[in-house]
Design goal:
Layout (H helix, E strand, L loop, with lengths): L2 H15 L4 E8 L2 E7 L5 E7 L1 H4 L2 H16 L1
Antiparallel strand pairs: 1-2, 2-3
Length: 74
């Protein structure tokens, strides 16, 4: 699977995982991208940069999602 397709799949997974909050994607290039979770008031709640080894397979991406969910609760 190409990096571009893996990136698209990861972005879709992150967007679905944090709905109804918005998941904004920034600086998608060279296989890396940043995502920011924004609440209903437009306030950024969490931001993180992901590298291919963090989203190229389901287990590391799920770990990112779980860590982000814990950060949102705190």
């Amino acid at each position: 699977m190409t990096t571009h397709i893996q990136t698209q799949n990861a972005i879709r997974t992150l967007t679905n995982a944090f709905a109804p909050m918005n998941c904004l994607i920034m600086a998608a290039r060279k296989g890396c991208f940043s995502f920011t979770i924004v609440n209903e008031h437009g306030i950024a709640r969490h931001s993180e940069r992901l590298y291919p080894d963090q989203y190229s397979s389901p287990a590391p991406l799920q770990a990112v999602i779980e860590r982000t969910r814990q950060a949102l609760v705190a």
